[in-house]
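ok so i was messing around last nite and threw this chain in just to see what happens. nothing serious, just curious
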Amino acid sequence: MTMQNLRRLGGGAGILAGLAAAWHLLGVAVIIPSAHLSLSAQESPHKYLVFAHRHQDMLSWINLPGAVLAPLLGLILLLAVADRLREAAPDWTQIGLALGVVGVIGFAVGAFIRQVGLGSLVQFHVTNKTGAAIAFYAVNGTANAFLDLGGVALGLGVLVIGSIMLRMNGYYGMIGSFSIITGVAQVLSGLTPHRTVYLIASVLTIAWFAGTGAAVWMEAASGTARKGHASQPREDISMVMGRGAQVQ
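result:
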């Protein structure tokens, strides 16, 4: 696979990751609460398992395409972004990619544990509510640990990637600034179990996936990732002044 094809594929995957993550946020924050299970009630074993017994298909359609698929698509985007930034800062790009990979894997594993693990407790809850509640806390705690790890690692990875993009012109420079905001929000979301922080970080991550994916895809489609184009790193001001002095 050529670099342009990888970037085009990664850009498209980023856009799809944004759509999948948006679907999951819509389901968790709007669709499920509209079916009488609020965000806070989703952490209650009895309320959640009773709801899951009645709406198992709804939870599957929300969690599997959104919470599980979005991180996997995000992984492809990270590979494409790393390929694009490798020439500008190879060492920092590898660090950002490694952190990002840990982050998206943490998200995917946490979402999978929550969907499959809690789903397996639905029938158990019918016969043994106390035992199911204890198991719920164990499974949900493990899933949340992976999700928090994913938030912190992905946030740090986005911060590193954003710091590289800040030295670039065009769309990448603007995305670099937005990446710093998104990275900080993701780290705070992983460290602070607050619903408002979670919602803000989710919205920013959706926009980052889609925006970064669109930028990578458009650049690959137009073939503008060459030296001398606006998306290359900015020249240091001291270098420019030095050349001016030499000309004089």
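not much to say yet. The chain has one domain: 3-226.
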